[in-house]
């Protein structure tokens, strides 16, 4: 249920990040991020390389747990519950909060088995043929592959493989889809297909996307968060920080911070 504030209706917060910092060993990678992510919206994380965008994205579904020495402090609240709480199962977190990576990474299996793998592993109930078809339809891929479901997924084009990975993510019925540079390895035609797909998917899912492509953020995102890199001269290190977060049109037309303006107008980064 959306909450009206004045004349504006603000969607429910799916994530609330409170003073989130991420360390890799003793090195501080990103510091004190405070960020809301709203329901059925696309939130884009933009900024120069090394500013912590992907690090923050991976903190949302505890993918950083898989990196030796990684530590997250602060609170990553998902519907008010800290996903790093001692009683929280990270496997269940990753089922609810799916992820699509920079490069398409289909399994060396058939198209059908790529989609069926997650539901089978997690014991999802239902007819597997229907589950696979529904996931492929959700990823706008069914009509292209329905006659070759037994074919190896490696025979698909790069754009099809990425949509297959999106279908694989939604097959386990997540609420959130995280996308880490999902179009960086794709040609412009495949990129526009993925962008169209994102706009369809946000009707049913909340999406957070990391992108270096500012035009892409401007095209698809409802809200945009700009990160940059701050130098710690004493420690001789560079630390990612969140500069500002707002509706995308405001970030690109009249940002509140000069650093954001400099970045979106190409003056640095």
TrEMBL record:
Keywords: ATP-binding, Nucleotide-binding, Transport. One of its GO terms (cellular component) is membrane. GO terms for biological process: phosphate ion transmembrane transport. Residues 15-254 form the ABC transporter domain. GO terms for molecular function: ATP binding; ATP hydrolysis activity; phosphate transmembrane transporter activity. PROSITE patterns: ABC_TRANSPORTER_1 (PS00211), ABC_TRANSPORTER_2 (PS50893). Gene3D superfamilies: P-loop containing nucleotide triphosphate hydrolases. This is Unannotated protein.
């Amino acid at each position: 249920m959306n909450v009206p504030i004045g004349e504006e209706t603000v969607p429910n917060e799916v994530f609330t990040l409170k003073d989130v910092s991420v360390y890799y060993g003793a090195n501080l990678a990103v510091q004190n991020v405070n960020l809301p992510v709203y329901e059925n919206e696309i939130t884009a994380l933009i900024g120069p390389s090394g500013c912590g965008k992907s690090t923050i994205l991976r903190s949302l579904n505890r993918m950083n747990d898989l990196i030796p020495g990684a530590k997250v402090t602060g609170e990553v609240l998902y519907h008010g519950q800290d996903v790093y709480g001692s009683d929280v199962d990270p496997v269940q977190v990753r089922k609810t909060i799916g992820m699509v990576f920079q490069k398409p990474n289909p399994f060396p299996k058939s198209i059908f088995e790529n989609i069926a793998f997650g539901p089978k592993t997690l014991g999802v109930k239902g007819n597997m043929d229907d589950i696979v078809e529904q996931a492929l339809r959700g990823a706008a891929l069914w009509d292209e592959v329905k006659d070759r479901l037994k074919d190896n997924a490696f025979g698909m084009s790069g754009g099809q493989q990425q949509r297959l990975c999106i279908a694989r993510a939604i097959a386990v019925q997540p609420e959130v889809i995280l996308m880490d540079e999902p179009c960086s390895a794709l040609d412009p035609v495949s990129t526009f297909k993925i962008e169209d797909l994102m706009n369809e998917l946000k009707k049913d899912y909340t999406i957070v996307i990391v992108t270096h492509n500012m035009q892409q953020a401007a095209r698809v995102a409802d809200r945009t968060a700009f990160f940059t890199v701050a130098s710690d001269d004493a420690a001789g290190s560079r630390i990612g920080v969140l500069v500002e977060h707002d509706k995308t049109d405001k970030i690109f037309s009249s940002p509140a911070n000069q650093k954001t303006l400099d970045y979106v107008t190409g003056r640095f980064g």
